[in-house]
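Q: Structure tokens for this one, please.
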Amino acid sequence: MEKNQYGSLESTKWSADFSKAEDDVVSMADSTITMDDIEGELFKIERIRDVLVRRESELRYMMDDIQLCKEITRLKKELQKLVSVPDNDKSTENRQKEEELLQQIHKLVETRDFLVDDVEFERLREKEEDKEMADFLKSKFPKTINKKGSVPARRMTSRAQQTSSPFTKTGLTLLKECCGFTCSVM
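A: Here is the predicted structure, written as tokens:
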């Protein structure tokens, strides 16, 4: 027999007789918990982590969207001041500034379009991940799913998702919803 250090125990005796019943096995886990229970709990924790990571990503997209909208609104106000001046009274510098503002707004709108595309790509990727996870869980824990019933779990939508989301629309609609219906540019 060999003595080894294990955790906080002084020593652990290892015997050559490994044919003892499983009841003799000492574990940190509660004796009523099965491996399937532990794996199930770990999968739940992993799922919660995934949901939190997705929410963080969603919030970051929203922050970027808000920043873009603020900048678009600021530029539109500046452009509106220049546009309100009659053409006869505009200097070459004013006309050039108008053109620059239009180009800047256009770039920001394009950036926002890319943001919308990224959000849509992420949504589709997450949908595929959810399907793969559901298939995996069905194959891994068929008894658990049958016990609880075969009713698929419904995903709760956040209040923000239930309202009109700027990420489900494109182009000018995005600009108008984001920056207000006073948009006369584009």
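A few notes: The beta strands are 2-6, 9-14. Residues 97 and 160 are 37 Å apart (CA to CA).
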